[in-house]
Write a structure and sequence with these properties.
alpha/beta, seven-stranded mixed β-sheet, two-stranded antiparallel ribbon, 6 helices, 29% strand, globular
Length: 164
């Protein structure tokens, strides 16, 4: 099964699913994540977290930043998984990779061939309560989502509306 974004949902997803941390507030807020289980979605998000001493349990990257090619974050992980995920979609194989990475005890990098932008949604759905999902909000900062039942319901409703 695959999931594809539509225009109405695209507009809704422009709003942060959690707390938006502006670039100027970044260092003080990110230090609060030390000791928490974090999943990062996005190359720059992953890099910024690692620069602040936060090593995500799972990082999802695609070698792109605002549609321009870039190097993957320099810090290495124990395990790498490669998946295909076309722009504006969420594939079943991407969801499977996220579920696998969550179960693995070691730091895992999921390298996406395509686009990782929407993969915060299945990360929220499949993470444990209390975990943190971090993703970039273009030209604004980083969104920090604390996983709990309410946000899991929201993420499930987005995925359901994307079902094809």
């Amino acid at each position: 099964m695959s999931y594809k974004i539509n225009e109405k949902l695209r507009d809704e997803l422009k709003l942060p699913l959690g707390d938006l941390i502006k670039d100027v507030d970044f260092s003080s807020k990110i230090k609060e994540l030390n000791g928490k289980v974090v999943i990062s979605v996005g190359d720059r998000t992953t890099e910024r977290l690692e620069e602040m001493g936060v090593n995500p349990k799972v990082e999802i990257v695609d070698g792109m930043e605002q549609r321009k090619s870039r190097a993957l974050p320099a810090k290495d992980t124990d395990i790498k998984i490669v998946v295909k995920n076309p722009q504006g979609s969420i594939t079943a194989s991407s969801i499977d990779a996220i579920k696998c990475a969550i179960r693995i005890e070691r730091r895992t990098r999921i390298i996406v061939e395509g686009e990782e932008d929407l993969l915060a949604i299945p990360c929220i759905i499949h993470s444990k309560s209390g975990w943190i999902i971090a993703y970039g909000q273009p030209n604004e900062g980083m969104v920090i989502v604390k996983v709990e039942d309410g946000i899991k319901r929201v993420a499930r409703s987005y995925l359901k509306r994307m079902r094809q």
